[in-house]
Specification:
The longest helix is centred in the first third of the chain and has 19 residues, at 3-21. The protein is built from 6 helices and 9 strands; from the N terminus they run ααββαβαβαββαβββ. It is 29% helix and 26% strand. The structure holds S-adenosyl-L-homocysteine. The site of S-adenosyl-L-homocysteine has 25 residues, from β2, α4 and β4.
Length: 220
């Protein structure tokens, strides 16, 4: 293995140990996914050396790749198994989608900024993530043609929970979404039981970029 690759792999192992496991993430599927996805390839070359830090990083267009721990926390909350079909709103760098794709049967991910959509689609092809389906559109309306989903994750902060997303959740499905104002949100986990009844819990504070669209924030 070349030296640079070995160095990134070491940084990845440290990241999983000290940021993910040490903070209580236990799902073996989640830990294995974090070990397998090369996080440094999801940021620009200039930021690769910081890719495993305990913070979000800019990915262009005013957007960010989330801090590793929040990706792990949301993924664990979704309790993904290998038969699951998962919808992600906010493809961004593609890192969260790649983590999900390492566990799930198939991941459907939606991005509203065209340049990010194109760049990340190419990355998925280069890295051979064949079970990720991408789409350029407003994710606040979900992806009706492919619904229902076993799990839905929204990786941008919303003023409320878009009804279309709850409707597109399968019985037994889980939805995780940051809900709040423009500056700070609460991470809400919603569960739909087999009779279609919906329960929610608050997982605590978080801070995401804005979910912009018909059923999110209206402005930029
Ligand atoms: N999951 C991403 C996080 C990216 S930040 C990652 O792992 O890198 C959130 C992303 O959500 C941004 O790229 C932003 O453009 C996108 N976004 C915001 N509103 C959206 C909407 N209505 N539909 C689809 N994507 C949206």
């Amino acid at each position: 293995m070349d030296k640079e690759l070995a160095a990134y792999q070491r940084q990845r192992e440290e990241m999983v140990r000290w940021q993910i496991e040490a903070r209580g993430i236990k799902d073996p599927n989640v830990l294995a996914a974090f070990h397998s996805v090369p996080r440094h390839l999801f940021v620009s070359e200039a930021l690769m050396d910081q890719a495993h830090g305990d913070f979000p990083l800019p990915i262009g267009e005013g957007q960010t790749i989330s801090q590793p721990y929040i990706v792990a926390e949301m993924t664990e909350a979704l309790a993904i198994s290998k038969e699951d079909r998962v919808l992600e709103i906010g493809t961004g760098s593609g890192y969260q989608a790649a983590i999900l794709a390492a566990i799930a049967y198939r991941v459907y991910t939606v991005e509203r900024i065209h340049s990010l959509y194109l760049k990340t689609r190419k990355l998925f092809d280069d890295l051979k993530y064949h079970n990720i389906v991408t789409r350029y559109s407003d994710g606040t309306c979900g992806w009706k043609d492919e619904s229902p989903f076993d799990a839905i994750i929204v990786t941008a902060g919303s003023p409320n929970i878009p009804k279309a997303l709850v409707d597109q959740l399968a019985p037994g499905g889980r939805l995780v979404i940051p809900v709040g104002n423009r500056f700070t949100q609460e991470l809400i986990k919603l569960y739909k039981d087999i009779d279609g009844k919906v329960y929610s819990i608050n997982m605590g504070g978080c801070r995401f970029v804005k979910l912009i669209g018909e059923h999110g924030w209206k402005d930029e």
